[in-house]
Design goal:
alpha+beta; Phosphorylase Kinase, domain 1; Transferase(Phosphotransferase), domain 1; five-stranded antiparallel sheet; 10 helices
Amino acid sequence: MTTPSSHPYDQLTPDVILDAVETTGRRCDGHFLALNSYENRVFQVGIEDERPLVVKFYRPDRWPDIAIHEEHSFTADLASHEIPVVAPLTDDKGETLFVHAGFRFALFTRKGGHTPPVDDPDALAMLGRFLGRIHAIGEIKRFSHRPSLDVQTFGWQAKAHVLTSGLLPTEYIASYQSLCDELLQAVEQVFEAVQPRQIRLHGDCHPGNILWTDHGPHFVDMDDCRMGPAVQDLWMLLDSDPIIRQSQLAPLLEGYQQFRDFDYSELALIEPLRALRLVHYTAWLAQRWNDPAFPAAFPWFGNRRYWEEYLNDLVAQLGQLQGTSDN
C-alpha cells in the first residue's frame, strides 16, 4: 500500500500549535505533549503561571463549523446541569471555536483519570446515573446539523468505501461483499422491528472516553455526538460475554432509570450496533489511510492476515445476530 507524501496535518508544526493557543490571549511556556487521538490532533499545552490546557485541532473538512458549534453547545448544556463533561472554553465573546493558520481548534480544561472499573457494580450504577441525566437532556431537542447513527451511514456507506478503497485484496472481495450484505440486512431487520427513538448522544461512549477518578467520571471527546438510540451510549461499557454483560446491565440500568426511563426493547440492538461498529471501524481506517499517522499507528491494518481475521469476525458477528434474532 502507498500513501501520499503530505497531509494537511503536516503543516501543524510545534510553532503553529503554540501560536494558535496564544491567539486566544494565553501565553504558552513552550511545553506541549501529543495526546492519544487520530481523528483530530490533540495536545496538552503548558500555560505560563496557570494549569496546562488541552487544545484540539479539528480534522480539516470533516465537520462544518455549524456542526462543531452544535457539539459545543450540547456539551456546554450538559456542563451547565453539573454533568461531568469536559466542555470547550469560551473567550470573552462566548466563542468556542477558533481558527489559526487554516486550522480550527478548541481549548479544554485538562482532566486526569483512568478508564472506569466496569467490573464494579457501584461504578456502573454511577455511570448509569450520569448517562440517564445526559439522555434526559439529550431528548429535549434534536441535532439539526449532526448525523444520525443509522445502517445506511455506518453500514452500507462504510461497506462501499472499503470496496472502492483499493485496500481490500481481490481474493477477499466476494467474501467481504456477501458477508456484509447478509450482516447488514440482518441489522436492518432488527432496527425495523425495534424502531428505536433517536435522541442526542455522546455517540462514542467507550471506556477510553471516560476518565475515572476517586470522585467519579468525566465524559470526554464529544466529537462523535449524534442522534441515535439510547443503548448506543451503554453497550460499549458492557462485556461481549452475555453472562457477564447481564451482571453489568443490572446496576447500569438501575442507575440510569433513576433519571430516565429505558426502553428495554433497545437491548435487542446491542449485537446490531456491534456489527455496525465492526463494519464502520474498518472503513474508517481505510478512509484515513492517507493520513501518515494511521499507517504508523495501525501497521497491522490491510495485510492478508488482517483481512482473513476480519472476515472471520464478520462470520462470528453474523452468528451472534442470527442467535439474537432467534430469541
